[in-house]
Hints:
Strand order of the largest sheet: 8-7-14
Largest sheet: 3 strands, antiparallel
Structural class: alpha+beta
Helix content: 10-25%
Order of helices and strands: HEEEEEEEEEEEEEEEEEEH
Number of strands: 18
Distance between the termini: 20 Å
Shape: elongated
Number of helices: 2
Amino acid sequence: MFKGFYTVATGMIAQQRRTELLTNNLSNANTPGFKADQSTIRSFPDMLMSSVGKTNAQAKQQIGAQYMNQVGALNTGIYMQETLPNYGQGQIYETDATTDMALIDGTLPQNEDGVAGSIFFRLAHPNGGEAYTRNGNFTLDGQGYLVNGQGLYVLSDAGQRIQLPNDDFRLDESGAIYVENQQVARVGVSFAENPNILRKEDNGLLRLEDGGNLPTAYGANGVTFGLRQKFLENSNVDSGRTMTDLMTAYRAFEANQKVLQAYDRSMEKAVNEIGKV
């Protein structure tokens, strides 16, 4: 009976965490550059139950002799194994703001594990090192530096801050920024061979676990991409599917809850009625 409590409880915890993940995806369905999280749910290893008894051997041979009769497997519940972002390209839409930029995926080679690489804008992290994002909703601060919505500096391919006289500039597909037909910088773009090594932070930022920096995407072997000015990349969250998955997770949680209530009533009857006998 108590094993049943634990099994049901693990199911409720897993579905609750999945609901929280899907809710976060849905709330960011219109956040530029947001990458939807995906979860995998697995079961704990089953326990093989066996009964132990005396053998059918002659009496003189039964002393200390026992046999094990296999009863069957006992499920021990489920758990959310991991969450991984989906780094697929989101829909590109026009904004008409000259400081808005969108990364356009071209050829992004897969690593030996079959995981496709991904490209990101380079930002200067306030704690040192670099942060990465797909959200190209940039602006110019009071000193003319190109910054993101949280005020982090956008870095050039040389790792320097990009300072512009005003927002009257041109960005070509190769990432070069021109002011009065003179190239002044090239937008920094990094390539992650395995983007799953990146850790999500607040406001759509990504960082390496060790605080290191990704290599540049320019000239990377087999990597092709482009940039578009006055465009942004939308979230890659599929709102319709997310709503369906959210309802499925909620109903699974509710079903586990009803089983838990049934176990609770059985235990109450065992204590209050059978216990009196």
